[in-house]
Each structure stands twice: as C-alpha cells, then as structure tokens.
C-alpha cells in the first residue's frame, strides 16, 4: 500500500490580467525577474518537493528554446497530439493518449508530487477533469492587455482556499491556493 498520495501541483507566473504569455507565446516580460540574486520566488523549495513534471508540447518546445534542459533529474511527460517525433531530452516521454486516464494512472504509480507546468490548454484539461490539488501563482506587476490566458474558459466554478501569500520587494506576489471544491459544469 502506498504511503503518500501524490498531489498534482500547479506552479506558474502570470501578468496581473492573468496572461501566461503574449499571443505569440513570448514571455519576454518575465525576463526582468529571472536570476534575481535576492530570491527565486520559492522555486527551489517547490522543485525539490516534486518528482514528476507534466507539460504540453508548446511549453516543452519553449523550454527547449531557452538552452539546456533544466529538468533532467526529474521524470517528465510531454502531452502532444503530433505524430512527428520531437527532440527527446533526458527523462522525457511523450504522451498522446487520454490525459485524464494517464494522470490517474500516474498518481497510482508514484509517491511523489507532480508538477503541472503548462500550457493553457493542458491546464484547462486538468481543471476540467478535477486533477489539480493546489496552485501556486506568482503575479507579475504588469498588465499585458492580451495574450495566452492562464485559465481559458474552464466552464465551471472552482472554489479555492488561500494559503501562504508572499510579497517580494520587486512587486511580485506569490499566492498559494488549495482546491476546496469543484462545481458541476
């Protein structure tokens, strides 16, 4: 019998108007906050708490564009509908089947928490299928006015309980939420 029931955890940054990227997928507005010598916004603590990483194909390709694959020490699954082969990094597997079925299988197969990295369509699927237990959202003090939304028409109400709130000197605010309940569609 498993000792620990893993949680699906969501950790992401967004603009004040809830966009995770510009329309073209660019996150150039976030680079001002990279490599802050003062803090990593809780990332190291969070990253050490998870054992598996889940992301969509577009997010995977964007992470690859940054240079070295940063998640080689964790098992990563990339959800894709594409048939053509993608560049495969260390510890990466591609998944093209039913997201909900795969994630429910994965939760039964591991004792460690799972990080849902993104993107927007994958986040929507996870929330629609009640697969997320908690969210950690870092709000960046910028209004983009448009882009790829953090939550794109999920189609139901999700009740949250606010946990830890961290305010950083450069204006970023980290907020932890726990899912309290799921309303029917």
TrEMBL record:
UniProt entry keywords in alphabetical sequence: Oxidoreductase
EC annotation from Swiss-Prot or TrEMBL: 1.5.1.3
GO molecular function: 5-amino-6-(5-phosphoribosylamino)uracil reductase activity; dihydrofolate reductase activity
Entries under InterPro entries matching the protein: DHFR-like_dom_sf, DHFR_dom, RibDG_C, Riboflavin_Biosynth_HTPR
Pfam families in UniProt: RibD_C
GO biological process: riboflavin biosynthetic process; tetrahydrofolate biosynthetic process
Domain DHFR as annotated: residue spans: 1-184
PANTHER family associated with the record: 2,5-DIAMINO-6-RIBOSYLAMINO-4(3H)-PYRIMIDINONE 5'-PHOSPHATE REDUCTASE, DIHYDROFOLATE REDUCTASE FAMILY PROTEIN (AFU_ORTHOLOGUE AFUA_8G06820)
Designated name of the protein: Dihydrofolate reductase
Organism from which the protein derives: Methanosarcina thermophila CHTI-55
């Amino acid at each position: 019998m498993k000792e620990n029931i893993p949680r699906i955890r969501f950790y992401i940054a967004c603009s004040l108007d809830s966009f995770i990227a510009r329309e073209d997928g660019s996150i150039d507005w976030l680079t001002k906050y990279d490599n802050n010598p003062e803090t990593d916004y809780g990332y190291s603590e969070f990253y050490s708490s998870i054992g598996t990483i889940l992301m969509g194909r577009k997010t995977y390709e964007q992470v690859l564009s940054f240079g070295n694959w940063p998640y080689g020490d964790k098992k990563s699954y990339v959800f894709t509908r594409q048939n053509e082969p993608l560049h495969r990094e260390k510890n990466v597997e591609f998944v093209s089947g039913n997201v909900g079925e795969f994630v429910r299988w994965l939760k039964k197969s591991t004792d460690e928490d799972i990080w849902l990295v993104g993107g927007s369509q994958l986040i929507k699927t996870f929330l629609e299928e009640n697969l997320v237990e908690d969210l950690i959202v870092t709000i960046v003090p910028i209004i983009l006015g448009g882009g790829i939304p953090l939550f794109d028409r999920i189609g139901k109400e999700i009740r949250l309980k606010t946990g830890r709130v961290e305010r950083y000197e450069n204006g970023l605010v980290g907020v932890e939420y726990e899912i309290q309940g799921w309303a029917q569609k």
